[in-house]
Batch of 2 targets.
Target 1
Amino acid sequence: MAWLTRIVADEQVEYRLKQQAGCAVVEAREGETVVLDAVESRAVDYRLRPEGGATLVWMGSGLGALGLVEGAALDEESKAAARRIMAGCHPETGARLVTSRTSVRAHEKARLTTARLVEAIERTAEEQGMTAAEVFDGKPKQLRVFRAQRRKVNRFGEAHRMQAVTLHKLARAAGLVLADVYGDEELATAWEHKDLRVDDRVRGWDLVLDLPKSDSVLQGLMDTLDEQELRNLVHEAKRDTFRQLERWAGYGVGSKDGEPVRVATEGLLAWSVEHQSARPMRAGEPGDPHLHLHVTIANMALCEDGEWRSIANSGQDLHRHAAAADAYFKARVRSLTYSRFGVRREHVERTGAWEIRGVPAELCDAFSRRAALVDEKAGTDASRTEKQATSMATKRDKVDVDATTMRDSWRERAEAVVGDVDAMVAATAPGPPGPDGGADVDGPGGGPRIPSPADLAAAVFDPKAGLTSSEKTFTRAQLLAAVANALEFGIDADPGSLERLCDDVLEVAGYAVRVPTLGSTVMSSTARYTTQDILDAEESVRVQALERFDTGTAQLTADQAAAIGVFQVAAGFELSAEQQAAVTRVLTAGHGIDALVGVAGAGKSTLMEACRIGWDATGTTHAGATLAAVAAQQLHEASGIPTRTVAAWLAENENGNGLRGVEILVVDEATTVDDRAAALLMGAAARAGTKVVGIGDHLQPPATATSTRST
């Protein structure tokens, strides 16, 4: 799981210059990117300082431009340099290197409520029998300032505040004295702080490189030499991953002829720290094994034209590639641990991760108490934001134990679960593969370590679990993550290997189809795709809608549609003329595929009840389909139409039952149904002669985005 935290305040920088690095990570499922914007509370100061490996280390190809050395540990002098870098300044001179017209603003104490001066100027103009514009006669610049401030006051009211010096100039131009508008004490405070500025630019980001729980358990239970070597491999993977991140996001954005252009840089500026444990659960006891790394990335880089700029299109490309970086990091760890220790993996659906074979799930669960506590407190279905808040609220203070005590504690707990810990570790990490393994061959099985492009394509484009399982389109950045996550044995250190694999996957016939690229022209991996099965599903739905138009399917006569009156009597209110026309059309049009469109709250379910009465009166069988079971119950209760989920209907279709005996199928929130599921339902309806009535809000975002076809 990729965790990316924006750093916008001095306090956040300070956290990441301590060995705990502001850590607030709770283990979670793979394949997700969480962006955290909030400043952590001071309660984060908990990390086991003596645990070993918790040294801040410089990272990035751009460090040389500032006289810093990659791989060097940060001492107090280096930490002072890091503070200046995160403030956009030179680490030695303190000179500002990165500026932004929007990032540096007056301090709140230097500001005054603008509305009071605007009112005073307007009052003065009225008393003198002139307009406010005439007050500034011959002073066009101040007139423009006044008009701009008046617009903001009209928009924001008393909340709009301006720097005292600006207001002083405006008052003087209007012939007023600022002290007559504001109180002496208030004005004195603003004047005292008039030169104080606040930099609210994004200073940088904290990227967490996490590992499956079984990796943490294995490292925590290995002997001292092996666990140190495993951690060294993890740091090697970290460095390889950071090089990839520099390829994807290590650029600045300049301007040429008024258009943004991408500008190459010498590399990124960052530092990293390793953590081996999660937050403690009980006072005096070490936390569970949780090996992960924090990489703090500064939001500036030296561009090839000699200018210092913010990076990655204001950080957007870091966010877009966070999942790819996370997946690449894990893939490199899988490759390195197999080559050095012979570690084998299996993909576990429950965690979504390539867990280590031989590390029992019950042992991983025993060492996941913090994640279990968060799930218990927040609920297993809670959002990532809710779980983060719960994590922050349940933190404990650090435990003052050394690395030996921590590891002894883990071993004792593991023995209670698996018995012979040494035997488990030996079986899990037996050592490097034999001489017949080779670079491209799986040791024990003799098969390829890298799946064929066709096999990769089948995995990453799987309709139920692949890139288009919940979205209709995907970008190359998303494909990078998906391909890396599909590699059981990981990937080699060649920086171009993952890109080439993605190219090979895209060339496999019958899967990816290029669609128009949207958005920025300077960002990386922006190429956009859909899959052929989605286009085929779209075409199938379109063709069936045309072929089944005006076919007399489940068509009632005008007299039979008069059942609307029965509904109105039962409901105790009359439908509007527009609603009556809609019900009549659905009942009498005879289209094999029909639709009832309305915004949320427009009474679509009520109209379905009126239709249901008409169908019941003529013995027409009907049923409903919704995405969720809760929605199925709601549609049934609101309309009287017996309803099942779309998945349940598709299961019936797979069993050969289809829509047998159903003359009307009402699909609720039809725009949110996946195109492939919709095509299957439409096909089953055509074979059974069932009329499909889709109801929903055409403005509601579909489950798999909007049509991908270009016009």
Target 2
Amino acid sequence: MYWHQRSRVSWMQHRDRNSKYFHVVASQRRRSNKISKLKVSNGSWITQQSDLEFAASQYFQEIFSSASSNSFHQVIQHMDRVVTPYMNSILLEEFIEDEVRTTIFQMHPTKAPGPDERVIIDNILISFETLHYMKTKRWGTSTHMALKLNMSKAYDRVKWYYLKALMLRMGFHPRWVNLVLDRISSVSYSVIVSGEAFGFIKPFRGIRQVYYFARHPLQNVKPSKKSLVHMSWLGDRRGKKQASAEIKLRIQSKLSSWKGKFLSQVGKEVLIKSVAQAIPTYARNCFLFPNGLCNELNSIMGQFWWGLKEVEKKMHWLSRKHLCFAKKDAGMGFRDLKCFNLVLLAKQGWRLLHCQDSLFFRIFKSKYFPNGSFLEAAIPSHASYAWCSIAQSQNLLIQGSRWRVGTGSSINIWQDKWLPMSSNQKVLSPRTFDARVSDLINGFDFQPRWKGTLIYSIFFPFEADIIKSILLSVKRLANSLIWTKNRRGVFSVQSTYFLQREIEEAANRNMASTSNAGS
């Protein structure tokens, strides 16, 4: 397990081949990892290996050292006791084997447990919405201020005796406090200089990532560099251009590096799919990329795929559109960037429909759709670019979703999609009166059942049979919006991408037929 984590999975499976590419990679990695000189605190440079090792060790020793102080008592004496005896009893319960097994097997076997990607995206969108509000506020006497905190540096400087006093003040049981401190203080470090470990550092402050098994754990979200998305997407043209230029530069640097010169066509395919197309993923989860940026990124990847030597361009034997086809359709399976961008935004829209206990939902609902659903929300003139982007996915979500009947009280018979059919889930029978699906159900107090006589008198026979086949629950379950492109009814990026591709291809066919008819 140790070496599996320390190495790349592909290397564990296939080993290194004695190729030119392997030797270049090995040599470059050795050069990159070698430290030839360091600048010390007095401004001078050191180059001797012994001096480098001592300076690196001394630097981290100072970071994790701490002097005793009692000044913190003035701060914690104003803290409230928030941990109740009941909470302590839960924390101190003995764990059973099934709980430990369930928790462990929820983790990835070769990755450290970390924050959910959804939490990172939520933080980005909430921060962006907050800054947009502060930037566009033009009236009122109240003022606002935002603080940007570097939490990684703060974690390194948290003193253990302060942490102990704080937890006791909050009401944590001493046994739990000692358990936490025991895990935090058991760490030690060595400094790796040019591939060799040197020194022994025993810290007296700083918090490393610690996870405990608890039936009701306290939420702990550690910061991530992935959450740092360009906040210059504030709607102004200059900000968008700057963010677009930085994204293009990152992709160009990856594709035009020395590694690309030694890759085969298969290697180029992997680099484009796993690196180049993945670089702007976090930004595409939050913002709709301009068409020009998508075209430029596609052009950069196309030139890399077909080959580009300095200023000489090679022939592109297939269009960018054909390269995005699946391999079974004579394409390469590259993602259409604009299409995939809309799919990722639809993922956030789907969360606005289902994750209604999140802070992300509460903020956006209170501002943009306080009296309705996300699918019914409009785009006001004061909307942020994040909301304008997410709202573009409404039609896609409407196309791929339908209602699963619970009580039926909120489902309009003729306007909403609720019939479990493969094509059109809306009722085709002529409208006779404006009603809800609940008007077609009897006996919710005991055994709910469809009003068969009424249904066959209103709907076409085939629709009446479909309606009668829908199972009703005695538990009076709420109506739920499900994703029809997935057998389990759960939203997935892959199925949504295929749906969006189908929608675009159908639109292109209609446009082509219209132009042919006009000519």
